[in-house]
Amino acid sequence: MQGTLDLLILKTIATDPLHGWAIAKRIQVLSGDVLSVGQGSLYPALHRLEQQGWLCAEWKDSDLGRPAKVYALTRAGRKQLERELDSWNRLSSAVQLLIETA
Amino acid sequence: MRVSRVVMHRLRSIFRQSRADADLQSEIELHLEQLVKEARASGMSDAEARGMARRQFGAVEKTKEECRDMRRVNLIANFVRDLRYALRTIRTKPGFSGPALLSLALGIGANVAIFAVVNAVLIRPLPYPEPEKLVGVFNSAVFSGQVVKEWPLTLDMYAGYQEHARSFEEFGVWSAGAATVTGLGDPEQVAAVTMYGISGIMILAAALAASYLPARRGASLNPIEALRGD
Questions:
Q1: Which of residues 2-61 of B touch A (CB under 8 A)?
Q2: What is the pTM of this model?
Q3: Which of A2, A44, A58, B50 could cross-link to B66 by cystine, CB 3.0-4.6 Å?
Q4: So what's the ipTM on this one?
């Protein structure tokens, strides 16, 4: 689900800016290896979010030994994260409700 | 703030395409390198690790293409492709493109026709020399402080203007009204301009008559009627 990937990316870099590799790794690790984001969808998503003005990117020296493109949330990105969280919470509680009562 | 950043970003994507492409290239290479490193760390040979990384990453070029799509740098290429597609659709679906083209043609035609009229009546200068010298003169009268505009013209006043006014070369008179046209069909009332005056004004009369087509047949040059007109 595209919306879910956006939410994962925005949430992952909400605390500190990360490069693409670290974003993929962190999503994998924090989800207990349940979620793995393919590069084929991660990078287009990053570029799309940057295009929409929700992320800003900067080339910085990184832990990988050479400069990496590091993504950070913009103020608009933070608002978008809130919106995505809201709609995710609504969706998941609706699904939960349905599972429990149906 | 946000809008300006988005605009800058898009402009950069379009005008500094090679730079954006190089950035994209090294971003993805870095990711591939990490995959290779990871594979090496798990005990693979160089070649194996490289192959593993490639497989894991998937189609590199496709990913790059998708990233470029996201940045809209394929703007011009896409436009050309869309244009070709549109032309092909027009040819293969005459049932749709026929009416579409027809309505476009009618729309453009109507616009041209309306503009031609507006241009002739409003925009183009009047068809006689020194049109800027032609002015309308209106009477106004003051009664105990009250200004009455467009006070009617009497025959005496007209004669007075003719004789004494020095600011104008000549005077003419016009009156807007209505006329009834009778003939073979039903009688019809049309807007009419009645006028009396001088050569220049007569040319104006022709021009006005031409622009008020329905009024043309009602135009009369009866001086008495013009002077009596209010």
A1: 2-3, 5-6, 9-10, 13, 23-24, 26-28, 30-31, 33-34, 56-59
A2: 0.49
A3: A44
A4: 0.80
